[in-house]
């Protein structure tokens, strides 16, 4: 049953309004990044737009180094979450051992523990391991994720157990079955988890602030905060230009991830 034209017009009109409301802050930040600070503070329409704020953002703090650090941290965390979550999900679905379901429920229960409650224990661990101001201290505490294990476990459960039994008959081991059968089937869920893990890692602020003391491995979110000051008037044009530069990688990932997700759904529908 097709939707009437009048309802379709109303539907898309409401979607456009909602999209404009959601996108308005980003659009405002983008416009402010080309404005002088005096125009921003007075709320006047600028006579001209320039890229001076972007040049100042690169000059005032090591933006490229911070971007590189954030990229390394986000990629390492994403890979670690994909590997550990997929292996744990495989064990909870295809390996038979006593107390498997109870262990899984206990593992999922950790999702109810707020991250702030684990900050102090994690900090003591990386301090004792001498991981302060090092990439392992920024990445390893986030490798194990209950959400990722739950997501992939639900996907793995759709694989028929008869397929696993057939692979055992032909002599295929667990690791080969995991690589050749399970991972290709769960491609869409892996892309979803990877995109979620990357975006979450990229936007981290509190943990990098606690686990770093200098600019060696400090991430871009901490560097962006350095553009703001309490002693003098903030240059909001420079701050907004830095924010726009920071969100560009996430926008690229979202566009690429959306394309891969749609492709995976299409392949799944065809199969």
TrEMBL record:
Keywords: Cell membrane, Membrane, Transmembrane, Transmembrane helix, Transport. CDD domains: TM_PBP2. It is a multi-pass membrane protein. It is found in: Cell membrane. The chain crosses the membrane at residues 9-32, 71-95, 102-126, 138-156, 177-199, 236-256. One of its GO terms (cellular component) is plasma membrane. The keyword Cell membrane applies. Its main location: membrane. Pfam families: BPD_transp_1. Signal peptide: none annotated. Residues 67-257 form the ABC transmembrane type-1 domain. Belongs to the binding-protein-dependent transport system permease family. This is Carbohydrate ABC transporter membrane protein 2 (CUT1 family). It comes from Ureibacillus chungkukjangi.
């Amino acid at each position: 049953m097709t939707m009437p034209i009048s309802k379709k017009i109303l539907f898309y009109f409401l979607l456009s309004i909602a999209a404009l409301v959601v996108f308005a802050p980003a659009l405002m930040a983008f416009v402010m990044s080309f404005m002088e600070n005096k125009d921003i503070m007075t709320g006047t329409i600028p006579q001209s737009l320039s890229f001076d704020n972007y040049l100042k953002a690169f000059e005032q703090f090591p933006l490229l180094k911070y971007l590189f650090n954030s990229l390394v941290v986000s990629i390492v965390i994403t890979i670690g979450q994909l590997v550990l979550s997929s292996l744990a999900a495989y064990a909870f679905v295809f390996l038979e051992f006593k107390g498997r379901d109870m262990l899984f429920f206990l593992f999922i229960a950790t999702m109810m523990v707020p991250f702030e409650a684990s900050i102090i224990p994690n900090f003591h661990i990386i301090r004792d391991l001498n991981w302060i101001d090092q990439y392992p201290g920024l990445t390893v505490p986030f490798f194990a994720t209950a959400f990722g294990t739950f997501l992939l476990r639900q996907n793995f459960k759709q694989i028929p157990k008869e397929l696993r039994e057939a692979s055992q008959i032909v002599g295929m081991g667990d690791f080969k079955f995991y690589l050749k059968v399970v991972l290709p089937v769960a491609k869409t869920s892996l892309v979803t988890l990877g995109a979620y893990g990357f975006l979450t890692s990229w936007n981290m602020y509190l943990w990098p602030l606690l686990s770093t003391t200098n600019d060696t491995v400090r991430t871009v979110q901490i560097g962006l905060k350095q553009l703001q000051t309490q002693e003098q008037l903030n240059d909001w044009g420079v701050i907004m230009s830095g924010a726009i530069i920071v969100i560009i990688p996430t926008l690229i990932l979202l566009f690429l991830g959306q394309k891969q997700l749609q492709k995976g759904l299409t392949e799944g529908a065809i199969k």
